[in-house]
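To: structure subgroup
Subject: Chain for Friday's discussion

All,

I'm putting the inputs and outputs inline so they're searchable in the archive.
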Amino acid sequence: MKRFFKTIRPYLLSVLLALAVGGLSAWVTRGAMARFETLQKPPLAPPGWLFPVVWTILYTLMGVSAALIWRTDRLRRDTPLWRYGVQLVLTFWWPVLFFLLEARLAAFFLLLALIAAVIWMLRSFARLSRTAAWLNAPYLLWLLFAGYLNLGVYLLNR
C-alpha cells in the first residue's frame, strides 16, 4: 500500500496543481462572467456550462502529463517542466485579460503566445514521453478553438 501511494503521489500533486491554477483563475474572473453572457458570440460557440467541464478535463490531462515527465530521467526533465510552468502561467492570465479586464485583443495575442508555448512544451515532452506529449493534444486543439472564439468575440463586440 505504501508503494502504491508513493507511485500515485506525483500524479495527484501534479493534477491538483494544474486544477488549482485553473480554479484560481476562475475565482479571480468569476464576477466578469455575467457581462460575458451579454456579448455576441461567433458561430460554433459552445454553451457556457461546457467550459468548466472541458477545462477540468484538460487540466487533469496536463497534470498527468507533467507527472509522467517528472517520473522520467532526472537530468533531462527540468527544461520540459519549466516550459510546462510557463504555459501554466500564460493559461492563468488569459482569462484575466479576456474576462476580467475585457482586453480581448490583448487576450488573443496572449493566446497566440500560449499556443506557441504549448507547442514548445510538447516538443520537449515528446523527447521524454510520447504519452505525456499526446495527453496535451486535446489542450492544443482546444486552444486553437479558443483562438477562434476569442477573435470572434472581439470582432463582434468592438
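Points worth raising on Friday:
The two ends are 58 Å apart (CA to CA).
The helical segments are 2-29, 33-37, 50-70, 78-100, 104-128, 130-134, 137-156.

D.
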